[in-house]
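Weekly structure sync - notes
Attendees: PM, LS, DV (DV joined late)
Agenda: review two folding runs queued last week.

Item 1: First target. Sequence and structure tokens pasted below for the record.
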Amino acid sequence: MADGVLDRREVGLDLALRILEAVRSEAVRASLRVSAAVVDRGGNVVASVRMDDTPLGSMALATDKAYTAVLWETPTGEFMQSTQPGGPDWGFTTTTGGRIVVYAGGLPLHEDGRLVGGLGVSGGTGEQDEACARAALAAAGLA
């Protein structure tokens, strides 16, 4: 295991917990209450956290943001325009049982240029969620 990434090139529990602690620290700094989830490259939850007084639906959104970021290896906010009616990705959100989320706050996780998992943050605005996720990845040395 190198720096929290398992030999099979997936995010491990130690790295996931380090990322979640960085999310929590950034959320506290920004006066936000968020939920966050880290998934492996198969979209399976490795670890998650829901801060006190976070909207109840935020955990499901955080998990699905992480899943979407892994599935397409793209930040979730990048799909907001293309999934509008008439856009090239119209209908995209109805795939995979409705788990696709196109709000900002989901980021793919890379180690040495390889996809190892995803992070999803939810509870603020899309911009706040993504800023929190990016700050957490930077703090964890993945940005």
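Item 2: Second target, run right after the first with the same settings.
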Amino acid sequence: MLRNKIATGAMALGLLAIPAIAATPATGANAWTVDHSQSNLGFEGNASGQAFTGKFTKWEAAIQFDPAALAKSSAEVTIDMASVDSGDPSRDTSLPEPDWFSTTLFPQATFKTDSIRAGDAAGSYVADGTLTIRNVSKPASLPFTLTIDGDTAKMQGSLTLKRTDFGVGQNAWASPSTVALDVKVNVDVTATRSK
């Protein structure tokens, strides 16, 4: 039971990071609409030596992106922190608790880009922005690849967060002896060009 609660909190954190993919309207770049049925905001963590994965089922994103107009491209995402799904109900119930996400006080996590820049390889980019969890804001960069085929875009990216940087996993859970501090966030998004 205790192990399950620990894992839930860590998982939830990972998913939070996922916000990095979304976007806010920007003049000069194409608007995109996320296809949630083909998209996933997921995370990976480790609790008591056991790896686990999870996802957030409720999140909103808007995307403004054009590879030829990166200076006018932007992204923003809002995640419902109570929507974590790890496939283990007893583990998921720990998410709202004060030591973890404290969803009564902080129901949402957000990621807003400051800039999107080209990466080293063709089709690769980096979204630099601000990730806010539990009202704690930190700079975060999400490397990602993106392909556009007609009016459909597919994006994949990942980054690793340290949960304690955002106050996730407090008191007895602050030590990495039970729940690893690092949480990997995986973003897989399919979007269509808005008409």
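Discussion on item 2: The two ends are 49 Å apart (CA to CA).
Action: LS to circulate a short write-up before next sync.
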